[in-house]
Here is the input.
Amino acid sequence: MDWTLCFRARLISPYFTRILMLSGIAITLAVSLNLINGFTGQFSIGHAGFMAVGAYSSAYFSVNLWGESSRTSLGGGTIGWVTSLIIATVVGAVFAGLAGLVVGVPSLRLEA
Here is the structure.
């Protein structure tokens, strides 16, 4: 069964869809912050900023560089959407990592 059918057939209301998406974002942030703060004991000031860079770059890639024609050329349906999601996630992670590198390298050279 195509999982997007629930959204297209309005079996799940747009309100609950938005709540699910925002909850997923908050869970992702909490788990990743727990990796830094919980296991290493370090505090990340730029955590939300790096997430914003990754989210913006993956959204820009999905909308402007990876359009509907690319999704349908991958087979359309769920396979095209899942492949598009995976590629956009990798693009967002790469750009967030590059932003972290740009901020992190000069920060490591600071002395007290």
In short: The mean pLDDT is 80. The chain is about 80% helix and 0% strand. Helices lie at 5-8, 14-39, 47-65, 68-73, 77-108.
